[in-house]
Amino acid sequence: MKRRDFFKTSVGAGVAAGAALSLGGYDKLWASTPLSAKYDLVAVMGGNPDAMFDLGIQELGGMGAFVKKGQKVLIKPNMGWDVIPEMAANTNPLLVKRIIEHCFKAGAKEVYVFDHSLDNWVNCYKNSGIERAAKSAGAKVVPGNSESYYQQIEIPGGVRLQSAKVHQLLLETDVFINVPVLKNHESTRMTCCLKNTMGLVWNRGYWHSNNLNQCIADFALYERKPALNVIDCYNVMVKHGPQGVSKEDVVLMKSQILTTDWVAGDAAGAKMLGVAVEKIEYIPIAHKMGLGNMNLDSLNIKRIKM
Amino acid sequence: MRSPVLRRIRIVFSTLFFICFFLVFVDFKSLIPTEYFNIILFLQFVPSAIKFIDLRVFAAAGFLVVLVLTLLTGRTYCSFFCPLGIGQDLFSRIGGRLRRKFRRYGFKRPFTVLRYSLLAITLIVTMTWGTYMIILLDPYSIFGRFMTYFARPGALVINNFLAGILGRFDVYTLSNVPVVGFSLIAYAIPVAFFLLVGTLSLTKGRLYCNMVCPLGTLLGLLSKISILRIRFDETACTRCGRCSLGCKSSCIDFLKHDVDVTRCVECFNCLNVCQQKALSYGIVRLKKSVHKTDENKRKVIAGSMLALLGISNVTNGQEKIAPKPKKDSTVKENRTLPVCPPGGTGIEEFNKNCTACSLCISACPNGVLKPAFKQYGISGMMQPVMDYHKSFCTYNCTICTEICPTYALHPLVLEAKKLTQLGKAIFIKDNCIVKTEKTACGACSESCPTKAVHMIPYEGNLVIPEVTQDICIGCGHCEYSCPTVPYKAIFVDGNAVHVAAKKPVNVESEIKTPVEFPF
Question: What would the mean pLDDT of B153-166 be, rounded to a whole number?
Fold first, then answer.
């Protein structure tokens, strides 16, 4: 799996470099980057969400490595809760905005943002600040509140989850960028890359009642995988997750993790929260299923401090 | 005044007023600020009267304005401000188009016994027993239910159809809003009334208002001493009868040159049809003895309709055909009391003041309010009740408390609402996935906004829910999220009287801002 991701990334980077040469103008970001991404995971610390992303994506070969000209991009943040950005239950709006801008600069035809929220969706979209941020960057913010937006898909090989109803955007777009916020979760202990996919599906009650941890890993088998995972660790909810009760639940970590391997991303997230990776059951399950690598020691990690 | 302008003013005004009402109830995107609700609903007689009894402030004095208006001008309320009345005029117009050739109206004798009996019963029942009759017969509430039960879902279907088309073109300005109906039995009364009011207005004009509506009858009584009214110029009248045939209330006896003021709703149609200009609207000196007779002939016929509805049960299953877990849950939820909406202060108090107009049911952005069938007993039929199997009360919202025209739901500021305990969550361990399946779940704790529902260590790496009831506000998000069927593993039992929940205490985390990457 790692090899495949590596291959995909490097081809993407090559195409992007070509595109960059032909475009000329906006080449600052990837002018100096190598043709293939050297890193499995890039971690940035010490800046604002948008600045950290600028640096991190550069290390991965620029957004052009993932988004090609004319492609449609789906950005899936976590905006499932009707709370303000400071509560960190939703992805940082600045980060979402910055990613969208990068997508458009890489030549994306259209960028879409949505989440199947747990609270009232209108309020979630509004109060998370993401709707406004995304629209200001030119993205389309799409509702996910009605079953009519979801389509049945099969997950061959799923142990407990063999089918699901996913948002049509996941099927209609070319590139899927997963932008979770790292949070404590009282039941699974952490929500990050893999668990963020629960906002892609309609019937997540099924997951809860059919071995939640296995279902989370099973969904990662589905063929539409994220080209890139950007984990928002700027403000991190370290307890009372995933919703949070008050600002005491949030710790400023000023960090960000970018990776093409979402299992590795989750493993790194667990470390940030100070939880043993094995305790978060879906991570070892996904690792064993070959969906990614949770052994951070064996990965090539770039650490940047701003 | 003889001018045809009066009729035109009435039509323009009532049309605009009706549109406002329609929008208030059908506004599924919550575009109208809640302040406007109160302005639009200010003059609604019954809600305003109920609110006034509670509050005694000018903001609730709309019904006094109506009383004064009636003393001055007669039953103008019925034509200008009553949404049900205006709706009937609309139907009458359609009915007129359908069967123009027939003589529809013409002078008819009033249903004196029936209408005064209904008024008397309504007053007696309301004063001695409860709001049953008001719930059933308040014209504004009847209209509210028509909007909530029929117009709003209709508008949603159209919206969803358009949203579907726009969605194909990648435009998401309209979004799909799932249409969620109520249990079938809840439709019984609104459908019956729709048929009754609909047929009567299609064929007989304002017969409903002059036969059934207790408010119409009450205002009719007051109109007996009103200053302005329709009057005949007997010298000019040729007794052609056009006025009588054009009268929606069938209250003009053109042979006797008499207008029955208790039934006249001031629609001014007669002024327009009279070619001799023999009719005018102005000050009338009471000259002849008013030959209206029998008042308050009391007949107690109430029971039948209500008894009819006291039967049978509602099946309140989960609406979604969700894939089931392996095992069915086994322990029945033992709900001792229903959960009444925030601001209701308590079930009994709420039941006393609610007229079941269903405005809150329409306005709730989460669709958690459903008309009660027997949850509150017979007195609370059709009043809103929290249905946590269908949805939950969203934490950051006070809309229902802000718009209630009767003050049955007191306005709550957000911070107060967040600490108002409507009920308490009760955990049924034997139904819980964590115990029955031995797998992680935590859907309830995940959705709990106060973490009254939190997870504690269970077997192995598993955690299982626990409830701290004194910080639970009874929002029902846990119950809604719980995936077990047929019975939930966590449910909210209503509080008879709403109480203040404790504020969740929270301490700083031990985890501090990192200086190095932990990996």
Answer: 93
A117 and A124 Cβ atoms separated by less than 8 Å:
yes
* Alpha carbon distance B342, B357 (integer Å): 17
pLDDT for position B291: 47
pTM: 0.84
Domains of chain B: 5-283 (no CATH), 322-500 (3.30.70.20)
Whether chain A has a CB inside 8 Å of the CB on B506: the answer is: yes
Enumerate the residues of chain A whose CB falls inside 8 A of the CB of residue B320.
203, 205
d(CA A182, CA A189): 11
Contact A213 B443 (CB under 8 A): no
Q: Find the residue in A nearest to B438 (Cα).
A: A211
Mean pLDDT of the residues in chain A: 89
φ and ψ of B137, to 5 deg: -115, -5
Helix (H) or strand (E) holding B203: helix B188-204
- Token couple for B9: 């003013």
Tokens of B148: 């909530």
Helices (H), A141-293: 168-172, 204-209, 212-219, 262-273, 282-288
d(CA A230, CA A210): 28
DSSP per position, B301-337: -THHHHHHHT-S------SS-PPPPSS---SPP---S
Which chain A residue has the Cα nearest residue B321?
Answer: A203
Burial of A246 (0-12, 13-18, 19+ CB in 10 A): middle
Residue numbers of B between 276 and 315 with CB closer than 8 Å to A: none
Give the number of other CB atoms < 10 A from CB of residue A146.
17
CB contacts, 8 Å: A251 with chain B: 509, 511-513
Identify which of A185, A205, A214 has the alpha carbon closest to the alpha carbon of residue A89.
Answer: A185
Closest C-alpha among B66, B358, B80, B92 to residue B215: B66
Q: Which residue has the higher pLDDT, B147 or B290?
A: B147
Residue B285: what pLDDT? 65
Task: Classify residue B500 by its DSSP letter.
Answer: E
Q: What CATH number is associated with residue A132?
A: 3.40.50
Asked if B125 reaches chain A (Cβ–Cβ under 8 Å), the answer is no
Write phi, then psi, for B336 (nearest 5 degrees).
-85, -30
Using DSSP's 3-state secondary structure scheme, residue B475 falls into coil
Please answer yes or no on whether B176 and A253 come within 8 Å at the CB atom. no
Secondary structure of A100-115 as H, E, C letters: HHHHHHCCCCEEEECC
Full domain range(s) for residue A6: 2-305
Share of chain A above pLDDT 90, in %: 87
Number of domains chain A is built from: 1
Question: Shortest CB distance from A146 goes to which of B176, B394, B433?
Answer: B176
* pLDDT confidence of residue A10: 47
- Summarised one tens digit per residue, pLDDT across range B65-94 is 999 999 999 999 999 999 999 999 999 888
Nearest CA in chain B to A113: B172
**H runs (alpha helix) in B205-292:** 207-211, 214-223, 242-245, 269-273
Which tokens is B238 given?
Answer: 């040729």
> Which carries the bigger pLDDT value, residue A21 or residue B54?
B54
Residue A211's nearest CA partner among B438, B443, B432, B257 is B438
A181 alpha-carbon distance from chain centroid: 8
Residue with tokens 């949505």: A114
Q: Measured at the alpha carbon of residue B26, what is the angle toward residues B21 and B27, in degrees to the nearest 5?
A: 100
CB-side exposure of B464: number of CA atoms within 13 Å? 18
Residues B191-201 have pLDDT tens digits of 999 999 999 99
**For chain A, counts of helices (H) and of strands (E):** 10, 12
Inform me whether the pLDDT recorded for A36 exceeds 70.
no
Band (pLDDT 50/70/90 cuts) for residue B3 is: confident
